[in-house]
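User: Quick sanity check before I run a bigger batch. Here is a single chain. Can you write out its predicted 3D structure?
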Amino acid sequence: MKHGLVFDLDGTLVDSLQGIAVSLNHALALSGLPAHSQKSVRGFIGNGVKILIRRASPADADDALLDAIERAFKAHYDLSWQTGTIIYPGITDMLESLQSRGHPLAVLSNKPHPFTVAMVSQLFPSVRFSVVLGQRPGIPHKPDPAGALEISAALGLGPSECWVIGDSTMDIETARNAGMRAIAVTWGFHDRERLRAAGADQLVDAPEELLDLNLNLAGTAGMRFD
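Assistant: Done. Predicted structure follows.
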């Protein structure tokens, strides 16, 4: 049985921390606000741009200020993300191998949809993702299951036939809410113990481990490997 594999983007397929931090600090500076270290920005990422901006801004920031920072962030990021985004080692080979084995591949991200589509198409030209979804107006972001269920329907698979693969507790929660299995990768933005405590069905420490796991996906339901 070929399961559908729904990948998160930031912290799972790509290390985008530097690019996000540079654009965020640029936007904050335009509003006269202090910058944040990459370590701090790492903790802000994962729930979409609006929450990223809110976490990085003063607690008393009003909506007008938050909107201005968000616009400045998006404008800067649109021009500069390529210089601050790196594919994690082994990711492209892993995706190409899964593709060759016939697994339908998809991306589901809380990054705005235009950035998600541009990043996937430019960084992974050799990989045929069946569906690529980012955050879209009017569609709730992860951990709401709407995006994951939209993908499973587009793939022609039931939720139980899909796995969500991501680096955050939010990805695990998304999988649970959608009735899917959850694989957590440990090279991203959340540490191993947080992922274990959140109840991932599988923890993997390197992309090639996904190839070993996916040799026997059909028989893994209900099993824990960590």
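The chain has two domains: 4-15+86-219, 17-84.

User: Great, the batch can go ahead then.
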